[in-house]
Amino acid sequence: MEEYSREERLRVWLRGLPGVGNRKFQKLMEFYGSAEEVWSDPSSIEGVRDEAALDAFFSRLAEEHIRILTRVSPDFPPQLQEIADAPEVLFLRGELPRRCFTVVGTRRATLDGRRAAREFSHAIAQAGVAVVSGMAAGIDQCAHEGALAAGKSVAVLGAGVDLPGSMESRELCEQILESGGALLSEYYPGTPPLPGNFPARNRILSALSPGILVVEAGEGSGALITAEYAFEQRRDVFAIPGSIYSPSSVGANRLIAEGAYPALDPGAIPEFYGWSGPSATAKPTADLTEEEQRIVEFLLLEPLSMDELVEKSNFPVSKLNSCLTSLELRGIIVKAPGGIYRAYQ
């Protein structure tokens, strides 16, 4: 059975109380400093403080092979730590791959869109990178299917990881787990896939990856919400251009007009990131100086501008420039449009 610290257990208790969303949780943490302090002060918040019930909850999750990650857990995804409104608690079935890329799109997919989702996802998975998507009908499910034909996939759900939705979704989820991928959700087990869950879920979809691909998206598509989050989180946004007469391509075409990279063939994304095959790994970093290592660690968490790197590292500008140039020449980092630096994952 997984071992959890006292603070981890009480964070799960606190976040699970009725009316305690992410923001209320964060306000309580700011005031009390820890979930232990909230538990110890009966006046802090209404809620049953029942150790036996908490033990039973953790035991049930262990039986169902569901792991819990909180923001104080050592294996909480680092790329989620720094985003706005980061999830305080995550539930995980399977293993979260180290390298991921997100593919999303409309539920009302065209035949061409479905084909593109499968082919682009297949190429990404073939390069040794897991494809993240949301398990919705249409583009999402095609993305999972394309990835599973060549490698791993991750489903970020708008429901509990024990209730993935339709029978088709459940079968696909089982294939994801059998392939070595993962199901991930911030919603507690037993939570049904309610419509209001999905927009908030999309911030996790975008944050897990260095970039996202929008295959097709019409007006009002949830994929456009994911793209908005990606822009805010400084992730790369790619979109597949489509006919100006196709309702399913309106959103993707607009994203390209707003600065998204046009994705013109399935190999474009692996080529952009330098992913060369199933055994592809991050560029060797054993010979980095201490200063270079610090810079890479910052950039693995989030893309940063020169000014932000100066602020975080406290390095002189001349020293920072020297390190960045060296890292770029060795293919360890890249300078993206807008003067934003990011590390290859």
Q: What portion of residues is helical? A: 40-55%
Q: Rg, please?
A: 21 Å
Terminal-residue CA separation: 31 Å
DSSP helical segment count: 15
The ordered string of helix (H) and strand (E) elements is HHHHEHEEHEHEHEHEHEHEHHEHHEE
Number of structurally distinct domains? 3
Strand residue percentage: 5-15%
Report the biggest beta sheet as strand number plus sense, adding barrel if it closes. 9 strands, mixed
How would you describe this structure to a colleague?
This protein is α/β, with parallel strands linked by helices and 345 residues long. The chain has three domains: 89 residues, no CATH class; 161 residues, Rossmann fold (3-Layer(aba) Sandwich); 54 residues, Arc Repressor Mutant, subunit A (Orthogonal Bundle). It is 44% helix and 14% strand. The strands form two sheets. The protein has a nine-stranded mixed sheet, sandwiched between helices. The radius of gyration is 21 Å and the shape is globular.
Summarize the structure.
With 345 residues, the protein is of the alpha/beta class.
Task: Describe this protein with a few key phrases.
345 residues, alpha/beta, Rossmann fold, Arc Repressor Mutant, subunit A, 9-stranded mixed sheet, 3-stranded antiparallel sheet, 15 helices
